[in-house]
Write a structure and sequence with these properties.
The chain is an all-beta fold. The chain is built from no helices and 11 strands. Strands 2, 4, 5, 6, 9, 10 and 11 form a 7-stranded mixed β-sheet that branches.
């Protein structure tokens, strides 16, 4: 059974950093992070295929980094220079499969 489990969300001040983790039940070549921010549709934040990041949303490029540790079947999202507009629920995705999300709140 495919499982994606996110963790690492929390409250952080503007300008701060946070690392999200997505633990998967097995290795998946194509992995993405999405987010649902208040008042907006769910959007793709970062995507990687194999070892390489291939796409970032314009709003996070240069601030967020997607990576993975294949020995742990875990995909990470390193977030830096966080802004209040980054607040939302972050989801791990592989094809039709989604995790339950982890909440990030950026506020002073």
């Amino acid at each position: 059974q495919v499982q994606l489990v996110e963790s690492g969300g929390g409250l952080v001040q503007p300008g701060g950093s946070l690392r999200l983790s997505c633990s998967t039940s097995e290795y998946f070549f194509d992995m993405s992070w999405y987010r649902q921010t208040p008042g907006k549709q769910r959007e793709m934040v970062a995507r990687m295929m194999g070892p390489r990041p291939i796409n970032y949303a314009d709003s996070v490029r240069g601030r967020f980094t997607i990576s993975r540790d294949n020995t742990k079947n875990t995909v990470y999202l390193e977030m830096a220079s966080l802004k209040p507009e980054d607040t939302g629920v972050y989801y791990c995705n592989h094809g039709e499969y989604w995790g339950k999300g982890t909440t990030v709140t950026v506020s002073s």
